[in-house]
């Protein structure tokens, strides 16, 4: 599972990974993880505020994560 930009239902994407560890970006699906996993992802991002500030997230999404 990989983290994608946004806080909507299109945030988490599932990719296949081949035997060499390469992510196949041509084949994916959006998934809705358990709310606990989403909370942990937000808390992890909260610890990396500088990355969040310079990310592609909208201003409101950045504020949400930074002030979590």
Structural class: alpha+beta
Low-confidence stretches: none
User: Helical stretch count?
Assistant: 3
Helix content: 25-40%
Provide the spatial order of strands within the biggest beta sheet.
1-2-3
Shape: elongated
| Oligomer classification | single chain
Distance between the termini: 22 Å
Mean pLDDT, as a whole number? 82
- Total beta-strand segments: 3
Biggest pleated sheet: 3 strands, antiparallel
Radius of gyration: 13 Å
**Order of H and E elements:** EEEHHH
Strand content: 25-35%
Q: What report would you give on this structure?
A:
The protein is of the alpha+beta class. Helix content is 37%, strand content 25%. It is built from 3 helices and 3 strands, in the order βββααα. It is elongated, with a radius of gyration of 13 Å. It starts with a strand and ends with a helix.
In brief:
By secondary structure, the protein is α+β, with helices and mostly antiparallel strands. It has helices at residues 35-46, 49-53, 59-66; strands spanning 2-3, 12-17, 23-31.
Notable features of this structure?
25% strand; three-stranded antiparallel β-sheet; 68 residues
Write the layout of secondary structure elements.
Blueprint: E1 2-3, E2 12-17, E3 23-31, H1 35-46, H2 49-53, H3 59-66
Antiparallel strand pairs: 1-2, 2-3
